[in-house]
Amino acid sequence: MFRFLFILVLLFPAGCRQPSTAKPADRPVGVVDTIHYAHGFFIVRYPGYRDVGIIDRRAGRADTLHFLLVEQGVAPPADRSGLPVIVTPVKSMVVLSSMHVAMAEFAGVADRITGLGSIQYVYSPIVRAGIRAGKVKQVGIDAGINNEAVISLHPDLVLTMSNPQAGAGAYKTLADAGIPVIPDADWLETSPLGRAEWVRLWGALVDKDAMVNKKFDSLVQSYQRLAAIGSQASPKPTVITDMPFKGTWYVPAGESFMAQFLRDAGADYHWSDTKGTGSLPLSFEAVAPIALKADFWLNQGLVDSRADVGAKDSRFASFKSFQTGNLYNYNRRINDLGSNDYWESGSMHPDLILADLIRILHPGLLPQDSLYYYKQLK
Amino acid sequence: MNGSIRKLSLTGLLLLLVLACVLDISAGAVRIPLHDIFRILFSRAPAADASWSFIVDKIRLPKAITAILAGCGLSVGGLQMQTLFRNPLADPGVLGITAGASLGVAAVMLTGGSMTTIYAIKELGPSGSWLIACAACVGAGMAMLLVLVLSGRLRDNVMMLIIGLMIGSVTLALISIWQYFSNPEEVKDYLLWTFGSLGGVTGKQLSILGLIVGVGLIAAWLSSKMLDALLLGENYARSMGLTVRRARTIIVCTTSLLAGVITAFCGPIGFIGIAVPHLARLCFNTSSHRILIPACCLIGAILLLLCDCISQWPGTQAVLPINIITSLVGAPLVILLLVRRRNLSINAYR
What we know:
The complex is a heterodimer.
Chain A: H1 2-15, E1 31-32, E2 41-46, E3 49-56, E4 63-71, E5 85-88, E6 93-95, H2 98-106, E7 113-116, H3 125-132, E8 137-138, H4 147-153, E9 157-160, H5 172-176, E10 181-183, H6 192-197, H7 199-205, H8 209-232, E11 238-241, E12 248-252, H9 257-264, E13 268-269, E14 279-283, H10 284-293, E15 296-298, H11 306-312, H12 320-324, E16 327-329, H13 341-344, H14 350-361, E17 375-376
Parallel strand pairs in A: 4-5, 6-7, 6-9, 7-8, 9-10, 11-13, 11-15, 15-16
Antiparallel strand pairs in A: 1-2, 2-3, 3-4, 12-14, 16-17
Chain B: H1 3-26, H2 34-43, H3 50-85, H4 97-110, H5 116-123, H6 129-153, H7 157-181, H8 184-194, H9 203-222, H10 224-230, H11 234-239, H12 244-266, H13 272-284, H14 289-311, H15 322-341
């Protein structure tokens, strides 16, 4: 499967739109970076520069946005004029999602962030210190982005979380001002490792490829080692997740991150075989027969105790998991501003999330240690 | 249409209500045989599947009762507003009460992390779903108070209508500001609340909803003579010995109570309040509130029960928000009736 995707990625640069001035025949052959899990980008190395492609494969078409990562002091390739050029290593950047903060932390360049979509929801102590010192400014997100604020920061790069399909359209003002805007579509990935693999792009942006790739490879090893333990475990306890609100219960679909985590952690998840990468909007009664008997209840969201769960809806008291106290929520790491590290660094540490889940569902299978992102609601 | 035919029609509607109720309780994502449902409802004997009694007792029955209460309350509230303002487009939301309730809910949901006052409220006891209901009641109550204070200074009902719309506009702007600065999780919760839902009201909340809607409906019934007089115009009502200002206060209070408590527990449910009074007038061809009020209750409850059945179409696991269904089903129905009838004056059915 992954090999097939790898070949697909290899084929992409050839199949995609090229500027009219391009003469591929004259160009030296590029070296394609190996990407195992992510489907949304590729990196091709040429002498003096890298070609980064952001692929949009939604809506049944494959289109690619190209960016040239040109090393400082090297002239951009003449045959590829018209493509946005980013001078590497990038020294300052504006990021719009908390996943980007986590990736910057992972690549060891969190101190290079100078602007954030929202400064309220940050966990990273490095970025928080930057905010306190006034070195990190708020710029707003999507339609609410404050172009003047971004331009006044003179960043080398803006990373948005917009859909590549939208291209640079929404951020045209910034592109016109000479600030490259990369749609960092990591959130479109369908596996935890695929999302985290986007950090390889960060390695290329800050010229730390070797270090970042090594760190990512060890993350993959650690995840796969845990998944091998978790998925072999038996018996598999039944699990429900999330909480219904006003009669509708959004449960993770079978191809979503959470379903993947639950499979790898050795859980019996009722909707594991459903289609879709998002969530399924089910009625309370469709989930109730499963929920009444489920051994564990995970990811309740914005609650902090068993009493909170009971107060949301008195009917929860009939659930087996509620009676046995097997309620676990991902809110161990919430800072004083209410920002949850699960949504931030969790995206770059799927191995820690998986280890938490295995420790919850199969006590004794892993060396005893305290949970990292999760805690039991008491 | 004479009295006996009307009585017959009301009885017919009552039968329809019972049918709609049975249909609503028997429809759902989980297929439960009808005789099992009756056994669970009436004999308390354990069902073939343990989860069935949970589904019928704790999910479907409360939902059906909520639908009946909300259907009655919103329709009667709408009828009162259409009569008071003598405007066929009025609904329980025109006074800004629904918007006020939304503001209360937004204040809790969207500023939850940052406002210390919310922590203070949480310390006082109400938590979870109670907090939302209380916030909506406070919001609706404040909007009502504002309307009442202003209505004391105004002679004209149309000006009150405009002020209600303005209050609604201001509250929406405030909510938009909070939405803009909130994190996506909270905005999503709020958005789901605005879709309306009949499924979140159980236990004690249901008793409170029933009690308040009951009080509101009795008050509306008792004020039906006043409403009849107001329909002829304020001057005429005055000449009949009615204290218009007092009547207005009573009617505004009743509607606020009904709309406020229903919005608090079910979210803003649109359309029923506008459409059902027209349906009632078309069916009964009268403008007497002694007949229109029970007719509105019955039609409103039936319509909302049927909408709830459709929202959880048998065989699907998903459930659509009730607000979408009421508009999708209700609007064509009213258009159809109007095309056949060709007029829409609240005085036309004398």
